[in-house]
């Protein structure tokens, strides 16, 4: 086995490890956020000596940015799962397919970045509120909901960093020099006995 083959096997193993880690991170972010729900009961008034209560539920579906976060992470997980499957089943990406993989990896990174940054913005708003718009923070009442959302966002950021690493490796594979074909002798150069 030549040096080039060893380097190629190491590169393939590295990108496979990055894809598996990114799959685990984005799948964890998807599951944690999709299952994020907390119900609290508050006393809203009293009638005589009887308290009047209201139950309020915080769900990820109540915020469009969190819904997009779940969809983006699920799509990133699906992309990595398909790429891992194609690698395990021995599909070779050569010719036109090689730049297509790099483009899909870049699109995956952009989608994941948009989802995680939108959810991070909403998490900051939920934690601190906005006094100018008179939006109150909710994390003081729904701490478990906010903590689970923070864990999901952290996992998605890890997945984003790994996806960016995958994108870099995909682009480097495009830039590697191609071996020059050996030239064939011209008909006039061939000696006839």
Automatic annotation (TrEMBL):
Source species, domain of life: Eukaryota
Subunit and interaction comment: Homodimer and heterodimers.
TM stretches of this protein: 151-175
Domain Casparian strip membrane protein: 12-161
Name of this protein: CASP-like protein
InterPro entries (UniProt xref): CASP/CASPL, CASP_dom, CASPL
Its membrane topology: Multi-pass membrane protein
A single GO cellular-component term on record: plasma membrane
Alphabetical keyword list: Cell membrane, Membrane, Transmembrane, Transmembrane helix
